[in-house]
Design a protein that fits this description.
The complex is a heterodimer. Helix content of chain A is 3%, strand content 44%. By secondary structure, chain A is mainly beta. Chain A folds into 2 domains: 54-124 and 323-472, Jelly Rolls (Sandwich), CATH 2.60.120.200; 129-320, Sandwich (Jelly Rolls). In chain A, strands 4, 10, 11, 30, 35, 36, 37 and 39 form an 8-stranded antiparallel sheet that branches. The termini of chain B are close together. Chain B is globular and about 50 Å long. Chain B has helices at 11-20, 105-108, and strands spanning 2-8, 23-25, 31-33, 38-43, 46-48, 51-52, 58-60, 63-64, 68-74, 98-100. In chain B, strands 1-9-4 form a 3-stranded antiparallel sheet. A two-stranded antiparallel ribbon of chain B has the order 2-3. In chain B, strands 5-8 form a two-stranded antiparallel sheet. The chains are: A mainly beta, B mainly beta. At the A-B interface, strand 28 of A face strand 4 and strand 10 of B. Strand 28 (317-320) of chain A pairs parallel with strand 10 (98-100) of chain B.
Chain lengths: 473, 110
């Protein structure tokens, strides 16, 4: 972790101007803005100089530097800075530079997460892992049917030797681990587990009610890292599923959905193929030989429509509190006349969002906000002055869970929104509110932004169309 | 910060207590707390696990608490807010059925 904490005084000496967003400012005498080439770490020689962009951002968050209770911005370079106040209240995990899951042991330390391979600020909601033994599958709470479990048999995604082996027996039947829980009907849950192939290459992940009359489940192919067949019944289906590569053969397998009746069990079932499996009430069956096995680590069940960072448990359910990032900026750094808000962010879910990033006066009455909408793959920019709406521009996005580059230019009777190099829409009527704060909220303290952040920049001047195209391309 | 564990006679009573801590509705119609305390709704916690056969048929139903349970991490408070103390659960071993990640209940209990 220490390698990531670049103190402000060192940034000017950094060989590669370390940052994670596609846009960065070179801290030499020129202070020029660059668009980063594909290779972040060694890209200085080929980065594209954004020569056309003469105005420089007054606030720039990349983000690369932090301390307990504070997220540092790259700009302004001199005091007064524009650092964010950061709180969480519990510890949490992240994926570090080496791709390993580790504890972030300070309760108010921001997390730079490398799940996608490159770093980004991770801002998550409060969530509880409802599984009481997330790693120790040998506990009696995990009911074994025609399987046995050996713990501490392999190196897990944490880099520690704490992965487990689930092995079948010589029976033609269901080979599974099952645990019980008391959940609610018609409520979204995400169920996930880290798995790695051994002599078997497939697992089935299922959330079920009594007697399997209502089930959502998917089979996951751990050889090829792809999702296999769905084995759901009772009128409900998996609403989302993912298989995420954690390296060294490990994948995080995730299903999301809800049952029409109350779920009370979840299970991990061994499978011999990704599609066309034999089954009994939607549970995969096959003839075992006592040697078929996969490696497992870190099971998690959350009342959310997506899986969040891993929350280890050992005997109780465990809650990680939400990340709160507030109070950057000042009237010297944010113009109430004209400017640009630039964002390079990704949402956790493509639907049912309602989280914001804003320029405001600390209230919802005066603000310019970017908000992830509740409808599918959609966001909006909105301007409110004196609690009266001034401008509103919807943005439809191909996939809001990918990193996208947004910019919003504001000036009286001249508002425009940009997405990935394209001018989406304009609004030519409206005033600009008096604003002096940059927050990961809707303006005051509600609608905390949940997602991944690679860059946020605030300009005190309006930019030209060519400059905004370059900035967001 | 301090942690409190509570049980209420039903969900409605618990929800009313939570609401009394401060709730507002934004202009988009979303309700949000106006306080910084972290509340985890545990609901009717399982006192004894259910038992199920190989086909998932219930052999023995789980035994649930007849009380509605909450865990709260209080921010900036050293005492239970008014009306909460009488619902506090005492004599918990360890962290009980739920914990806040990396924050020991016994060390930080209200």
């Amino acid at each position: 972790m220490a390698n990531e904490i670049y103190h402000r005084s060192n940034w000017g000496n950094a060989v590669n101007d370390i940052a994670w967003g596609d846009v960065y400012e070179k801290f030499d005498a020129t202070n020029e803005m660059f668009v980063r080439s594909d290779n972040y770490e060694n890209s200085n020689e080929t980065d594209k100089l954004m020569a056309a962009i003469n105005p420089k951002p007054s606030i720039l968050l990349t983000p690369t530097a932090y301390d307990n209770g504070s997220l540092h911005t790259v700009k302004p370079v001199l005091s007064p800075f524009a650092d964010f106040d950061f709180t969480r209240g519990t510890i949490a995990t992240r994926v570090n530079e080496q791709g390993l899951i580790e504890d972030v042991t300070d309760t108010n330390l921001p997390r730079i997460d490398y799940t996608d391979g490159t770093g980004s600020l991770l801002l998550e909601p409060q969530s509880t892992n409802l599984i009481t033994y997330s790693e120790d599958f040998s506990q009696p709470a995990w009911n074994k049917s025609n399987t046995s479990i050996q713990i501490n048999t392999t190196t897990s995604p944490s880099g520690n030797f704490d992965g487990s082996t689930l092995t079948d027996n010589a029976t033609s039947s269901i080979h599974r681990l099952r645990d019980t829980v008391s959940l609610s009907a018609s409520t979204n849950y995400s169920l996930s587990v880290f798995a790695k192939k051994n002599t078997l290459s497939n697992i089935q992940l299922a959330l079920i009610n009594t007697a399997n009359s209502n089930t959502i489940s998917k089979v996951f192919d751990l050889e090829n890292g792809v999702i296999g067949e769905e084995l759901s019944q009772g009128g409900t289906t998996v609403s989302d599923a993912k298989i995420q590569n954690y390296g060294n053969g490990w994948f995080r397998c995730i299903i999301v959905g809800q049952l029409s009746s109350a779920p009370n069990q979840y299970q991990i079932t061994l499978a011999t193929q990704s599609t066309g499996n034999s089954q009994s009430v939607k549970q995969v069956t096959y003839s075992g030989d006592g040697t078929g096995s996969v490696f497992l680590y870190g099971a998690q069940l959350e009342e959310l429509s997506y899986a969040t960072s891993y929350i280890p448990t050992s005997g109780s359910t465990v809650t990680r509190l939400k990340d709160v990032c507030l109070n950057s900026g000042s009237s010297d750094l944010i113009s109430s006349t004209e400017g640009v808000l630039y964002l390079e962010v990704a949402a956790f879910a493509s639907i049912n969002n309602f989280q914001s990033i804003s320029l405001s006066d600390g209230t919802a009455q005066n603000r310019i906000r970017f908000t992830l909408r509740s409808d599918l793959n959609r966001a909006f920019f909105q301007v409110t002055d004196g609690n009266t709406g001034q401008a509103f521009i919807n943005i439809d996005i191909t996939d809001i869970t990918d990193f996208n580059k947004f910019a919003f230019e504001y000036k009286e009777n001249d508002f425009a929104a940009w997405l990935n190099g394209v001018k989406i829409a304009t609004d030519t009527i409206g005033t600009v509110p008096t604003i002096n704060q940059l927050n990961f909220t809707s303006g005051a303290t509600s609608q905390n932004f949940n997602g991944k952040v690679k860059s946020v920049a605030v300009y005190k001047e309006a930019l030209t169309d060519a400059q905004l195209t370059a900035l967001t391309t | 910060m301090k942690i409190g564990k509570y049980e209420f006679k039903d969900q409605k009573t618990a929800e009313a207590k939570i609401k009394a801590l401060g709730v507002d509705t934004d202009e988009d119609g979303n309700e949000y707390p106006t306080h910084g305390h972290a509340i985890v709704k545990l609901g009717h916690i399982v006192l004894e696990q259910g038992e199920y056969d190989e086909e998932g048929e219930e052999i023995k139903a789980p035994v649930l608490s007849n009380k509605y349970h909450l865990d709260v991490m209080w921010v900036g408070l050293d005492e239970h807010p008014y009306g909460w103390k009488s619902n506090a659960v005492g004599n918990i071993d360890g962290n009980g059925v739920h914990s806040f990640y990396g924050v020991d209940y016994q060390t930080n209990k209200m």
